[in-house]
Amino acid sequence: MRESTQILIIGGGPAGSTAAGLLAREGFQVTLLERDRFPRYHIGESILPSCRPIFEMLGVWEKVQAHGFQPKGGAFFQWGPEEWEVRFSNLGDDTPNAWQVVRSEFDQILLDHARELGVEVFEGVSVRDVEFDGDRAVAARWYETKDGDRGGRIAFDYVIDASGRSGVLATRHLKNRRFHDVFRNVAAWSYWKNAKPLGKGPSGAIAVCSVEDGWFWAIPLHDGTLSVGLVTGRDLFNDSRGRLNGDTQAVYDEALAKCPTVLEMLEGAEQVSGMKVEQDYSYVSESFAGPGYLLAGDAACFLDPLLSTGVHLATYSAMLGTASLASVLRGEVSEEDAWKFYGTVYHHAYQRLLVLVSVFYESYRGKEHHFYNAQRLTHDKRDALNVQAAFDRIITGIADLNDAEQAYKLVQDHLHGSTSGDPNPLNNLNRVHEIKQSPFDPDNAVGGLYLVTQPRLGLSSIQDSPRPEPS
Question: Sign (positive/negative) of CA torsion 22, 24, 30, 36?
Answer without folding.
Answer: positive
